[in-house]
Design goal:
Strand order of the largest sheet: 1-2-3-4-6-5
Structural class: alpha+beta
Radius of gyration: 17 Å
Helix content: 25-40%
CATH class of the largest domain: Mainly Alpha
Strand content: 25-35%
Number of helices: 6
Shape: globular
CATH superfamily of the largest domain: Transferase(Phosphotransferase) domain 1
Largest sheet: 6 strands, antiparallel
Number of strands: 11
Number of domains: 2
Length: 208
């Protein structure tokens, strides 16, 4: 746990932004260039250094306007962390929770933006594996940024895995067996689109 005012090299912690299964993200200030950044600190600091570098290497391979960009990865004071662009906005999950079903054209625009990000990642051989509204950021101008590639894998690894990764309401059937293919992300995208259009998850909706 990092605290407000704590420094990691040139980065000064401002506040926590959120925490997931793989790490905690903080808002920080790059004191050299006076710029806000997001810093992700993995929970499992004792992992092999090569494993810790997996996410930043994946992010570096999928540079795209609709994907949260990575700046660098560092280790300071025995703490490994990833420095990413700070996206000022809220998660798509919070947008849906606050407003319910989105207007059709807005939902379609959001879907197209997520598709662009996923298509680019897939062209680089990368599967997200945990695509859901909580991992999509929405800026004040309705530009979307897909985030949290902490569970991502290259196809040749993900398709032959044994560890179950993902969030059950959004997981494709093969993911429950520890495997994932490109279509797994499309399944998750379909569930996300349904939620944008209705305000609820498919299996939470009443039977017709």
């Amino acid at each position: 746990m990092l605290f407000r005012g704590q420094t990691l090299g040139k980065y000064k912690i401002i506040a926590p932004l959120g925490s997931g299964g793989f790490g905690t993200v903080y808002l920080a200030q790059d004191t050299w260039i006076d710029k806000k950044v997001a810093i992700k600190v993995p929970h499992r600091q004792g992992l092999d250094f090569g494993e810790l570098l997996r996410e930043p290497r994946l992010l570096a391979s999928v540079s795209h306007p609709n994907i949260v960009a990575i700046t660098t990865a560092e280790k300071q004071d025995n703490i490994f962390f990833i420095v990413m662009e700070y996206v000022h906005g809220e998660t798509l999950e919070n947008v849906i929770a606050a407003r319910g079903a989105l207007e059709l054209n807005r939902a379609l625009d959001f879907t197209c933006q997520i598709c662009n990000a996923v298509d680019h990642a897939h062209r680089q051989g990368v599967i997200h594996r945990d695509l859901r509204p909580a991992n999509v950021l929405v800026t004040e101008h309705d530009m979307l940024k897909v985030a949290d590639f902490g569970t991502s894998r290259f196809l040749e690894i993900a398709a032959h895995g044994t560890t179950v990764i993902g969030s059950p309401p959004y997981m494709a059937p093969e993911q429950f067996h520890g495997k994932a293919v490109f279509a797994s992300d499309l399944y998750s995208l379909g569930v996300t689109m349904y939620q944008m259009l209705t305000g609820v998850l498919p299996y939470d909706a009443p039977a017709p």
